[in-house]
Amino acid sequence: MLTEKVALVTGASRGIGRAIALELAKEGADIVVNYAGNKERAEEVVKEIEEMGRKAISIQADVSDEISVKKMIKDTIKEFNRLDILVNNAGITKDNLIMRMKEKDFDDVINTNLKGVFLCTKAVSRQMMKQRYGRIINMASIVGVSGNPGQANYVAAKAGVIGLTKSTAKELASRNILVNAVAPGFISTDMTAELTNEQKEAMLKMIPLAKLGQPEDIARVVRFLASDDSSYMTGQTLHVDGGMVM
Amino acid sequence: MDAIFEKVKEIIVDQLEAEEDKVTMEASFIDDLEADSLDVVELVMELEDEFDMEIAEEDAESIKTVGDAVNYINSNR
């Protein structure tokens, strides 16, 4: 159970982030729903959480901007007086072959998907160190382990997240802050809906469980990492991918 | 200045579980008071809260001894 715990989920207005926010709330946590642009959908998530009897607020912030991130963490602590769980989920894609990938597409994806994790982690570490308690869960991706054509920027960022997870885990372990990553495979969300049928069919052939994952499949693993059931684990990356990469 | 030293000393004893008589102006956090680098970061955070000030990261890096901390607080408060 996560009763009396406060969790901040970045990119929580839809997809995997939304499922994570709802799952943690179901376990009893109060939730900060971070979003970049879609206030309406973030508010819907807030409402769903409130209907479960938990507290929730939405905060707009661009995770790639340090000032914006600092303000979000400050506002979170002002509202809830603590912060126990950070789920670094916010992410974007700007896919293209390396030959055609623009420098800006590379930078944008690195800034949101990798630097964003660093900035949010840095901003919460003070509070978590003081509490002598914290759980940081980073959304990596299975392609960060395996590579994927057309996603050099995304893959580089996600592989970076796995390394960042390990370093942060080592730095903060002595303060009882556990840092782990989840590497989702092919999950049915708006992000994967953009893939072509050809890409989808090719991916399904590589999945031993022969189906797409659902956002809830990821959310339940995040719930495990956020709970005391995983209290002897840190620095790990859990593959939740139907067996795609072993 | 003495008041600041006494307060800083109190925080160090508490935070680093250091022996009181080892906490002198010359004492280095890492070499004399058995702190590690994360302890020093944490100590600076505690000093910021106690003295209600913000210590810039560049400045924090130059705080290595008890005296460095006391002098910094004394001249920036």
TrEMBL record, chain A:
Function, as annotated: Catalyzes the NADPH-dependent reduction of beta-ketoacyl-ACP substrates to beta-hydroxyacyl-ACP products, the first reductive step in the elongation cycle of fatty acid biosynthesis.
EC number: 1.1.1.100
Pathways involved: Lipid metabolism; fatty acid biosynthesis
This protein's UniProt keywords: Fatty acid biosynthesis, Fatty acid metabolism, Lipid biosynthesis, Lipid metabolism, NADP, Oxidoreductase
Ranges of residues in domain Ketoreductase: 5-185
Assigned protein family: Belongs to the short-chain dehydrogenases/reductases (SDR) family.
PROSITE patterns for the chain: ADH_SHORT
One of the GO biological process terms: fatty acid biosynthetic process
Binding site for NADP(+): 11-14, 89, 154-158, 187
Gene3D superfamilies in the cross-refs: NAD(P)-binding Rossmann-like Domain
Keyword presence, Lipid biosynthesis: yes
Protein name, UniProt field: 3-oxoacyl-[acyl-carrier-protein] reductase
Domain of life: Bacteria
Any one Pfam family match given in the protein's UniProt record, by short name: adh_short_C2
Gene Ontology terms for molecular function: 3-oxoacyl-[acyl-carrier-protein] reductase (NADPH) activity; NAD binding
Source lineage: Bacteria, Bacillati, Bacillota, Bacilli, Bacillales
Catalytic activity line of the entry: a (3R)-hydroxyacyl-[ACP] + NADP(+) = a 3-oxoacyl-[ACP] + NADPH + H(+)
Species per Swiss-Prot/TrEMBL record: Cerasibacillus terrae
Active site: 154 (proton acceptor)
NCBIfam families, alphabetized: 3oxo_ACP_reduc, PRK05653.1-1, PRK05653.1-4, PRK07231.1, PRK12826.1-2
Automatic annotation (TrEMBL), chain B:
GO molecular function: acyl binding; acyl carrier activity
All copies of domain Carrier, residue ranges: 2-77
O-(pantetheine 4'-phosphoryl)serine modified-residue sites: 37
Record pathway: Lipid metabolism; fatty acid biosynthesis
GO cellular component: cytosol; membrane
Superkingdom of this protein's organism: Bacteria
GO BP terms: lipid A biosynthetic process
PROSITE patterns with a match to the protein in the record: CARRIER (PS50075)
Record's comment on post-translational modification: 4'-phosphopantetheine is transferred from CoA to a specific serine of apo-ACP by acpS.
Location relative to the cell: Cytoplasm
Keyword line: Cytoplasm, Fatty acid biosynthesis, Fatty acid metabolism, Lipid biosynthesis, Lipid metabolism, Phosphopantetheine, Phosphoprotein
Statement: the UniProt record of this protein carries the keyword Cytoplasm: yes
Family under the similarity heading: Belongs to the acyl carrier protein (ACP) family.
Function per UniProt: Carrier of the growing fatty acid chain in fatty acid biosynthesis.
PANTHER family membership: ACYL CARRIER PROTEIN (PTHR20863), CARRIER DOMAIN-CONTAINING PROTEIN (PTHR20863:SF76)
Protein name (database record): Acyl carrier protein
Organism from which the protein derives: Cerasibacillus terrae
Designated gene of the protein: acpP
